[in-house]
Structure prediction request, 398 residues.
Amino acid sequence: MEYYSEKISRLIAELSSLPGIGSKSAQRLAFHLLDMPEEKVKKFTDAVLDAKTNVKYCSRCFCLTDREVCPICSNTNRDNSIIMVVESTRDMAAYERIGKFNGVYHVLNGVISPMLGIGPGDIRIKELLLRLQHEDVQEVVIATNSSVEGEATAMYISKLLKPAGIKVSRIANGIPVGGDLEYIDEVTLLRALEGRIIL
Amino acid sequence: MEYYSEKISRLIAELSSLPGIGSKSAQRLAFHLLDMPEEKVKKFTDAVLDAKTNVKYCSRCFCLTDREVCPICSNTNRDNSIIMVVESTRDMAAYERIGKFNGVYHVLNGVISPMLGIGPGDIRIKELLLRLQHEDVQEVVIATNSSVEGEATAMYISKLLKPAGIKVSRIANGIPVGGDLEYIDEVTLLRALEGRIIL
Prediction:
């Protein structure tokens, strides 16, 4: 980076510390920012700082939001008796995008991962249990990712809730729509077979 | 974007306005920034604003730098009799990285592009002519890109300088090192043949 003067190098270093931004992209972004009008750059940094300062967890579902209670939790048209448990606010947004789920969410903000030293106490599981005590919930749909950690977290939560008599479900594994069987891994093929539905 | 609260959406929108950052990457970056410690986010935005405020053009070679005269122009060990003309500060850095050019640079900060309405007056050509009047220059190496605009700019500058008796050269076209002839376009193959050197 010593080919650029100090302030440019510092900017490039900061940019390349972001995920998915390599050294070349960081240079490209840095010179783009230097080329932008000053007020636009100000607008950009303001958006970053404003979001960082004001975005907190929703006090009910723990998604990231700039309100005390997020728009979904405060929407009276949502069905509060069904809670979908997701890993992150982005996963929540993925389900919101399809617009077919009218229940509410609970965002764990992580998954159990012994490899990374993340235990059940480090994600929002106790907050989920607390909600289940105070809210009238009929079903908990576990929609953690289909990774090893996501599956383990789903199993953990399911084992915790079932004895309490709460209906617990898990989103289906199977062939992605448009997927080519030839290129799909064995575990997915097996799960798709096991989860077959009668036509 | 309406799946996120307003401040998050605004941050995502700002990030996705940057080059090479699509909607998915912008979401990923936004949540990464929200997840970073507050002082690190501050350090990031400070680096952006500090660079934007303090980085200007070098008064001699017009590269982007945070000094009045850039480190290369103020380095007394550089050979001031040979000037390499490049399109951008990034191209200058590309040549600096190999560390084999000991001359100085002149950064045009653009190329002649009638399609984009950029004429010779919009890039730093007159500043180059001024330098040639006041400095004792033996050779001008034109290292604009090998694009249509880069070639046109190189031709334009060459026609301007040659009558003044200045030695003008152009970096070579040819097969990139490690390149496979089979996949190389015809114009490059022709240029490589024309530019062949006797062994």
DSSP finds seven helices and six strands in chain A. The mean pLDDT of chain A is 92.
